[in-house]
Amino acid sequence: MDWRRFDVFALLALRGVATVEQVMWHACEDGLRRQDYRILALDFSSGIAPALAQLGQALKWCERFGYDLNPASRSLDVLRDGFDFGVADGGGLALVLRSFALAWREDAAWTRGLLAIISEHSLQELALGRRVFAVIVLADAASTLVGQPLEGHVIASPWSGHFG
After folding, report:
1. Which end of the chain has less neighbouring CB within 10 Å, N or C?
2. Separation CA 100–CA 127 (nearest Å)
3. Domain with 138 in it: what CATH number?
4. Strand, coil or helix: what is 133?
5. Using an 8 Å Cβ cutoff, are 53 and 106 in contact?
6. Average predicted confidence (pLDDT) for the chain
7. Mean pLDDT of 98-126
8. Is there a contact between 164 and 35 (Cβ–Cβ < 8 Å)?
9. 90 within domain boundaries
10. Does residue 164 fall inside a structural domain?
């Protein structure tokens, strides 16, 4: 494994939750696509509820469970139970979190819980040979998200290496 690769470092060292600065996003996206990642963006600029509705669509919630994921309830237990993107064996998915600092300000406990679910899911998928992780796109390196505690680690500083 090449630890200089963004995805390898994100999956193994950062427990499935990486950050990049907005100015580096296009280079990051190009690198992920070259590594055969599917990119799924969630936009939190209008708040958690619309992004959670997007997430419900991406998870095919209604098809799988017979009801829409309720953005108003924000149940992390329900979300954890249905958090599966159907990534193919050997495949990769980068879940891109845009304007995530706004969601953090809206409900830090819920967004911290979402990152914990992503981190758990990332590890489970990696054990099955699939690569799934989150990329938080930060306005800049001075974001208030950097250093925020997660379960056993913190939100890391933006990646400063190359993107493969």
Report:
1. N
2. 27
3. 3.40.50
4. strand
5. no
6. 95
7. 97
8. yes
9. yes
10. no
pTM over 0.90: yes
Alpha-carbon span 88 to 75, nearest angstrom: 27
Q: Does the structure show a pLDDT above 80 at 158? A: yes
Token pair belonging to 13 = 């060292």
Nearest-5° Cα angle at 18, 17 to 20 = 150
Locate 7 and state its tokens.
């995805």
Query: Is the pLDDT confidence value at 164 over 80?
Result: no
Question: What number of other Cβ atoms are within 10 A of residue 18's Cβ?
Answer: 22
CA dist 71 and 53 (Å) reads 6
Half-sphere exposure of 84 (CA within 13 A, CB side): 10
- Count the domains in the chain: 1
Asked whether residue 160 is domain-assigned, the answer is: no
Joined together, the tokens standing for residue 75 give 């149940």
With respect to residue 57, please indicate whether it lies within any of the assigned structural domains.
yes
Q: CA-based diameter of the chain, in Å?
A: 43
Q: What is the C-alpha to C-alpha distance for residues 105 and 155, in angstroms, rounded to an integer? A: 15
Using alpha carbons, list the distances in angstroms from residue 59 to 27, 43, 85, 116: 27, 15, 6, 17
Distance CA 53, CA 164 (A): 32
